[in-house]
Amino acid sequence: MIRRKIIAANWKMNEDYDQGIKLFSTVINLMDDEITGDQQVIVCPPFIHLHSLAELSKNHLQISIGAQNAHQAESGAYTGEISARMIRSTGAEYVILGHSERRLYFNETNELIAKKIDTALLNTLNIICCVGESKKEREAGQQFEVLKKQLTEGLFHLDEMQFAHLTIAYEPIWAIGTGVTATAAQAQEIHQFIRQQINTRYNEQIADNIILLYGGSCNPKNAVELFYQKDIDGGLIGGASLKARDFVDIIKVCN
Ligand code: PGA
């Protein structure tokens, strides 16, 4: 099974409007010059950039745009929130759900994430769902248990057709923004475990087809070893995606 590589950028709460346009335009220009493979690139900026970036990427089939969060309700009196339908109407095609920063700072539970996934799917968004254990959980040897629970409660209610719209990112919380990356062997072990869980819940074909990303202090150097692991199909990049040169160098690993 040859799965297409995906490199996704998570800008988090960075870049004002002008800075965002400049960063994205630089990424596009560098990609035009340097990218020769068929890897897919998904850029997930703050909401304010979605429409402009979707417009700028129109003639660049390799690039898609995604949001970093969406509300679980279709619409209504939720001051300050953004719905999946609104996101889709900007031209964005993806949404990141279940990021550990949302689980931690906004109390998002597996149950809430499951609802958000359902609403996003109803609005024809593809989903990058993040899972991963904390430092404490890893030190206690609980990583497999934690991941199994996140998968079971957050994702495994989906039917086979719905599950096909999912990409899963394994992001160990201890590696996010810390400069400490999981070793390629640690990451591969978890990716293999996730694929096995999917095989058990669904079937071998679905487990073989699903794209599994690694995230957590990924950079142009460590990406080479990580992305060549059997079960790792690319990365979700935070800090390094804010530097056009570094981000395109990470994309280039998959040329
Ligand atoms: P990082 O973030 O690359 O800065 O560690 C990854 C993420 O949180 O998606």
Description:
- With 255 residues, this protein is of the alpha/beta class.
- The chain has a single domain (6-252), classed as Aldolase class I (TIM Barrel, Alpha-Beta Barrel), CATH 3.20.20.
- An 8-stranded parallel β-barrel has the order 1-2-3-4-5-6-7-8, surrounded by 6 helices.
- The protein is 44% helix and 15% strand.
- The two termini are 18 Å apart.
- The chain has 12 helices and 8 strands.
- Residues 10, 171, 176-177, 215-218, 236-240 line the site of 2-phosphoglycolic acid.
Kindly report the spatial arrangement of strands forming the biggest sheet. Answer: 1-2-3-4-5-6-7-8
Give the CA-based shape: globular
> What distance separates the N and C termini?
18 Å
CATH superfamily: Aldolase class I
How much is the radius of gyration in Å? 17 Å
| Number of distinct helices | 12
- β-strand amount: 15-25%
SSE string, helix = H, strand = E? EHEHEHEHHEHHHEHHEHEH
* Main beta sheet strand tally, sense and closure: 8 strands, parallel, barrel
Uncertain segments: none
CATH class: Alpha Beta
| CATH architecture type | Alpha-Beta Barrel
Would you report the number of β strands?
8
Tell me which ligands are bound: 2-phosphoglycolic acid
Mean pLDDT: 97
Number of domains: 1
Structural class: alpha/beta
Helix content: 40-55%
Q: Which properties best describe this structure?
A:
255 residues; alpha/beta; TIM Barrel; eight-stranded parallel barrel; 12 helices; binds 2-phosphoglycolic acid
